[in-house]
TrEMBL record:
Domain Carrier: from-to ranges: 334-411
Protein name: Fatty acid synthase
GO molecular function: fatty acid synthase activity; fatty acyl-[ACP] hydrolase activity; phosphopantetheine binding
Keywords: Phosphopantetheine, Phosphoprotein, Transferase
Record-listed E.C. numbers: 2.3.1.85, 3.1.2.14
Signal sequence segment: none
Organism: Cardiocondyla obscurior
Catalytic activities: acetyl-CoA + n malonyl-CoA + 2n NADPH + 2n H(+) = a long-chain fatty acid + (n+1) CoA + n CO2 + 2n NADP(+)
Coiled coil, from the record: none
GO biological process: fatty acid biosynthetic process
A Pfam entry, by short name: KR
Amino acid sequence: MIFLKEVSFHGVMLDNLFCTSSVEEKLFLRDLLHEGIKSGAVKPLTKTVFNKDEVETAFRYMAAGKHIGKVIIKICDEKELFEKKPILADPRYYCDSNKTYLILGGLGGFGLELADWLIIRGAKNVVLTSRTGIKNGYQRMKVDRWKSYGVNVLIITGADASNRKDCEFILNSAEKQGPVDAIFNLAVVLKDCICKNQTPESFEESFRAKARATKMLDKLSRSLCLKLQHFVVFSSVSCGRGNAGQTNYGMANSVMERICERRVADGLPGLAIQWGAIGEVGLIADWQDNNKELVIGGTLQQKISSCLEKLEHFLLQDCAVVSSMVVAEKRVGAYGAANIVETVANIMGVKDLKTVAQQTSLAELGMDSMMAVEIKQTLERDYDVLLTAQDIRNLNFAKLMEMRDKDLEREKANNKNNEEAVEIAGIHLFIRFISDNNDLSTDTCVELETRMDPRRIKVFLLPDVKGCAQIFNPLASKIRSTAAVLQYGITQMGPMSISEYADHLLPYILPKAEEQRGFALVGYSYGAVITLELARRLEKRGLSGRVVLIDGAPEFLQKLVEQFLPSTTEEELQNNVLLAIMDNIQSALSGKLLLDLEKCITWEQKLESFISHIPENKVMFSTEDTKKLCEIIYMHILTVQKYDLSSLGWIRAPITLLKPTVQFVNMSDEDYGLHKITRDKVDIHYVEGNHFTILDSDKVMAAINGESLLDPKAFRKLLSEDRPFEIEEPERSRV
């Protein structure tokens, strides 16, 4: 009809026009377009705009084929400065075609897949090591295919990476292909049996492929592979979480992880990946029978494609030890996508619940006998819901939604109770002393009645946040040297900064330290910070000594205050401190106290309100002493909050850190960041108990007395020595 009306259509190839036309024609077209836009004759195409964080939605919208015009991603406003990266995205790992990639155990199941993945990502030089070489057609096919891509593939057989000469040969052979960019240790030898039946030989075999080989690769690659960017070892969940019968295997993996941590600390690449069970290839695939799902070490099989996807993420991050696994527990709580309603809907084939009547039974919705059996088994296995066959037939989505809502409420209540329990327990252990019914000494330096061995250096102890000596009274009879507690509590001095406390207390230590030509300082909790300041001042005067910290350090205390007493203003911190103390006295009164504190303006008014809420049967101090005690707690917490960690200087003394097995503050550094403070080593020892009961341990007494303690990191020292590992009866670092 349109053509019958003498309407004609013309297709214009603008790209050809711009390539062949003269400048005059281009200017004419520009002016024509400009005039058309100005007059309104030329209008932009219809557009649908998505924000920069809606890329997936935009592509799905475009793929549906129902849109008109253009689909546009709005990166930023037209007038907005384009200074920062507009979109956060996972980076992609690429290989350097001029460099070499070394894979120990490269002809195994995972090794072949890893090599294939590296080649797809651009690797042109690949070196694979194997104990036996190519022994099946699949391996030959993969190698021939890689070579057809133009990849240089070198296979080294019979070389033992744990042997120095063989390891040098492997690395030098790889370097001849091109500078080594990445080393992957996938080698594994399993000698599983219960711990009682383990032998030195079974440990030796597991250690050779993993611990010893990794140790030798670490040592030699530092001098031979100067352009190394990735040093990757494959560890196991049996190391990170334990697995019965794999003591030797777990220990070998643990050694590799410690080597990687040390490399990262030295500024070198290092990555240990704790894999769970891996399906499709490798050992688990060999064990699997008729595709039956296996549970290994509490994990299900992870697909190799998923492993390689996670490997890419791991290679592009900075953590030394990472983990990837599929936990065997399949149940997803009400917070997850696969809740009980969606699970049954998926079995029934219902895509949209709005299209079905919620009160209609599943039988009426078309549930057959096979569906009924699957629903019954799924509810029992994943949700602990036991229903009879008749109950299943009468079940409807309304009842399922009721189950889901109850499950959600129960989970929320449990999470809330757990969070409150952790919070109260944590701050209660730190601020627990308001009800102590002990005499308060007015002396700054309180001598303890100890066993007084004159041959030992006098020990100076610094107490926790209340600054009072009685916390150490139960320990006095077990201390073998003369000892004194330096107080900074309610009766000794006014509020000071941590540095001012150290300056004030130094004269009480210095004469004795100069007489003994050394010092011994013990800091507990808050006292650990002042202990480090005192050690720094004593060392400036040419003295040397030892430092013992009992569950305390600057970073630890700041993290504790941040976690349990969060605040943005001093008024908020004051309220939180008083509420924390009230939780120790009678937590039921904290809510009422908070309402009254919010009405108070000054600190003095808040103290008066706090005193008025203390029950008569809980009053253990005079009103004045209670006020001073609250004041000193608040000021000490404030000094921790304001303490400048960036200005800390080094100390030369070694530090012994005693940590409880029950901890309420999660720290990224095992040593609470103390390695940033001392030029010597930090010996870490775990003691059974929590922040308070740790003082009851004989191990704490041994540390105070300067007696020998097992260094849990002694094994790391062995790694740095060029000698074979010795399998000895292990001592325990925990009591």
